[in-house]
Amino acid sequence: MRITKITAQVKTKGRYSIFIDGKYSFSLSEPALINSGLKIGRELSEEEVGAYKDESAADKLYNRTLGLLARRPRSEWELRQYLKSKSDDPAQHEKILNTLINMGYVNDENFARAWVETRRLLKLTSTRKLRLELMQKRIPDPIISKILKEDQTDELEVLKELIAKKRSQTRYRDDLKLMQYLTRQGFRYDQIKQALSED
Fold it and tell me: What's the pTM value of the predicted model, to 2 decimals?
């Protein structure tokens, strides 16, 4: 079994197709191809081809996972769920995760900090709701507590701003409906009463 052609893929930049005896066999990313030392004319055994096909699948999944992280940061649990949906090889999942963790691409503390900062910028939300969102991402409780303790946002000011925004809507001019909405958003009853008294 001899490698007869190695060509760059058109649809997937940075990935190369390897042809054996004139037929497509597997593909590798540029770094994986360089590390493999494969070249045209090299003879491969059936076992070696099988091993490269396994490496190709792992390499493809690793690059897809990197692409997912490029769109937005993910918690470790989110990545585990993604990997499980794409492959049924737990050892492969652990290898990919460990690589990403060691490279600093996956870090639950950094993820939680970025999540809180982004949510604070984009939305008027309660600390309780932020805690719930981070719990849904399976961030460990000690990390959640640490990040929320670092957050210097004045919850009462956030609440007042949200009340002012909601008062412009007819349905929330009614105090009871507004209080019910604010409670659903995770604000405490005593905070709501205080903010409404100052409204």
Answer: 0.76
